[in-house]
Structure formats: structure tokens, C-alpha cells
Design goal:
The chain is α+β, with helices and mostly antiparallel strands. The chain is built from four helices and nine strands, in the order βαββββββαβααβ. A five-stranded mixed beta sheet has the order 7-6-5-8-9, with helices on one face. The protein has a four-stranded antiparallel beta sheet with strand order 1-2-3-4, with helices on one face. α3 runs antiparallel to α4. The relative contact order is 0.14.
């Protein structure tokens, strides 16, 4: 007589974005906005993003009251990726920056993706990529440095007239051009046409676990 197979354990249903939460350290700007303590819990209540300080204070941001939201990530080779969201609210002079801890992003990804989707649905402007000022500074530092080296090499090639100097000059100039095109195509701040375009600027699924 064969033994009956043990019943399989049913996996609990995945939490919806409304059931998810993540924690951030409080910045001076968030304290000035009304949160108290050293950290804040962030989650969704319907279409409202709610920030609650661990020692008091609460900020509620309805999606329909957001003029603009920008989601960005700053990947690095040897340290965890830095994720940030900046929110501009209607009638508020200052924007709010939400930055999860680099090694403990929690549910930052699904929460911010859902909230940005609601902002998009309500006609708000949704951007991805760093600030233009920061990107231009990066371009000046990287592309500008290579372009300056190429100009110096060009001067030497004109004076010396040696073929290998022309070759090195062309290589450095081409590298500067490729770097500029790469930064423009991948990092230039752009308005998204659908919320799925934000996924590359949010933590992968395995990073959203607590």
C-alpha cells in the first residue's frame, strides 16, 4: 500500500507594493520637513507615499500632488549601488530626496516604482537619470580630460609630424567621443514614456528583500 504524499506547503502570496515598507536614515532636509528621529519608514497607502519618523512626524505625498519625480542610480565597481529618488511637490519650494541605505534597500524598488507609476498616471513628470548639473560635471571631468589630452597630442603630432603620434591622437579623440556618446545615451536625464523604463534605475528583485 503506497503512502500518501505529504501535502505541499503553499507559498504565501507575494506582498503587493501597498504592503511593502523600507527604512531610510533621516537627512537634515527631511527633519526640516517635519520628521523626527534618526530614521523613517516609507510605504504606500493607496496612491499616497507616507514617510513616518521613528520618533514622530509624518509626511504624506499624494501622487496627484507631485509635479515631478526623478529616479536615479549611481553604480560603482567596488561599492554597492547608490539609489535616489527626488520628489517635487506642488506648492512646496524644496524637493525631497529619498535615499535607502546602500546595503539594505529593502522594498525601495517596488514601492518607488509603483508610486512613480501613479505619478505618471496622474499626469506628473517622471524622469530617470541623474541631475543635469551632476552629469555635466562628470562629462567635463572625464570627456573633457580626454579631449585636452587629445589636443596636446595633436599639437605634438603637428610639430613632430610622426605617424604614430597622429595614430595615438586619433585613438584618444575617438575614445573621448565614444565616452561622450555612451554617457549621453545611458545617463542623460530623460522623461520616461512608460514606468517600466525605471527598472534599470531601481534595485534588482533580490535586493528588495529585507
Amino acid at each position: 500500500m503506497t503512502k500518501p504524499r505529504p501535502a505541499r506547503r503553499r507559498r504565501p502570496p507575494a506582498a503587493s507594493p501597498e504592503d511593502r515598507r523600507f527604512t531610510i536614515k533621516l537627512s537634515r532636509a527631511l527633519r526640516s520637513a517635519g520628521l523626527r528621529g534618526s530614521a523613517a519608514e516609507i510605504g504606500l497607502e493607496g496612491e499616497v507615499l507616507v514617510l513616518s519618523g521613528d520618533q514622530g512626524g509624518r509626511i504624506a505625498i499624494p501622487a496627484q500632488e507631485v509635479e515631478r519625480i526623478r529616479i536615479v542610480s549611481y553604480p560603482a565597481r567596488y561599492v554597492p549601488t547608490d539609489y535616489r529618488t527626488r520628489i517635487w511637490r506642488t506648492g512646496e519650494p524644496r524637493s525631497l530626496v529619498i535615499a535607502p541605505e546602500t546595503r539594505r534597500t529593502g522594498d525601495y524598488g517596488p514601492v518607488m516604482r509603483q508610486f512613480a507609476g501613479w505619478v505618471f498616471a496622474n499626469g506628473g513628470e517622471v524622469l530617470r537619470g541623474p541631475s543635469l548639473v551632476r552629469l555635466l560635471a562628470q562629462m567635463i571631468w572625464t570627456v573633457g580630460s580626454l579631449a585636452l589630452i587629445a589636443l596636446v597630442l595633436l599639437g605634438g603630432a603637428i610639430v613632430e609630424g610622426r605617424w604614430w603620434m597622429w595614430l595615438i591622437t586619433a585613438f584618444v579623440a575617438g575614445l573621448a567621443g565614444l565616452l561622450f556618446v555612451g554617457l549621453y545615451r545611458t545617463a542623460w536625464p530623460r522623461r520616461v514614456t512608460e514606468p517600466g523604463q525605471l527598472d534599470e534605475y531601481l534595485p534588482p528583485a533580490q535586493e528588495t528583500r529585507r
